[in-house]
Amino acid sequence: MLVKGSLVGWIFHPTQRPRRNMVMLKWHLEPRLDTTTRQRWIHTIASVAAALLVGAILLAGAGVDPLEAYVHIIRTGLLSGYAVSDTIVKATPILLCALGASVAFRMKLWNIGGEGQLLLGAWAAAGVALHWLPPTTPSLFMLLTMMLAGALAGAVTCAIAGVLRAWLHVNEIITTLMLNYVASLWVSYFVFGPWSDRGFPLTPSFPKGATLPRLTDIAASWPALGGMTAHAGAILALVASGVVSHALARTRWGFEIRVLGQNPTVGRLSGMNHARLTLTTMAVSGALCGLAGMTEVSGVVHRLQDRFSPGFGFMGIIVAWLGKLEPWRMVVVAFLFGVLLVGGKEIQPGGVPQMLQGLILFVIVGSQFWLRFKIRVARTEPTS
Known about the structure:
Blueprint: E1 3-8, E2 24-31, H1 37-61, H2 66-78, H3 81-106, H4 114-132, H5 139-168, H6 172-192, H7 233-250, H8 252-262, H9 264-269, H10 274-301, H11 312-322, H12 327-344, H13 352-366, H14 368-372, E3 373-380
Antiparallel strand pairs: 1-2, 2-3
Helix pairs in contact: 1-13, 2-3, 2-12, 3-7, 3-10, 3-11, 3-12, 4-5, 4-6, 4-10, 4-11, 5-6, 5-10, 7-8, 7-10, 11-12, 11-13, 12-13
């Protein structure tokens, strides 16, 4: 679609014809054939800067000094070993959810259900730790089983939307979004009911063998690490980033995902099974989000409880967009979001991190228009 318009040097009556000495500027929108890496980075930085500027205006309107608030976020989220440790803890589930979202987004499948898949992954991991394996199970076997259960729960949840999309052509945005509510109510039923610890909305604590190792666990040998809560889930998230990066760039599955995402017709004519790839892609996407839930309950909470996630699944969507669906870029963006969460939790009024996240997502999505189109302006002489 081509959009055209014109601007003239001054206003004249509609019945008058433009004079010969008038300069007319004609413009039209035309699609960009390609965007450079430099343009994409400028777009991302400008979008974040615009979101922070709007956030500063809103903070000032609420009676908060924006500069002081931003300095506080950086100081408390980045400028000490304990702050970096806490930031890594927050960044871990965000990164795993971002990886899950990016896999689906590459194929133009819009998995908005990362939050629900995270919750059910946490539920499955808690089931293994508390009910389905004895507490004396060796730690390595226990943790591997919890990872498998968490990934499987997330994969099955997202695969439901994949089946509906592939064979019944049901919009996956609607199904994944609605499954978030199903997952939330499912977890609430168990923590308020059969798995509740003495009537409280949480389960009993996991056995020691079901918790991921943390830096503070080796404080006896390294006293400087005492009190640091970063856990082995961060290593799992980095390994997952490498695996996803390799799979998307160097495997047939990744190639077919990219082709079907860019041009489904070409993919079908080339013999690619669109339905099968839709199902497997959604399953992998959900599995990564389910792993995020496992790392959170095993590495941080050490039990399943109501509302343990502040919205990691939704944050993963923002991180995936900011990272341009590139796994190693998302590592950096997820860490910065961790800084925002850790540093912003003490700022009053509450909700500052969520406000900034929402602004960043709004600006990023809205400004995608300028990556897809450009304005071309030309000077023309009016005809008599």
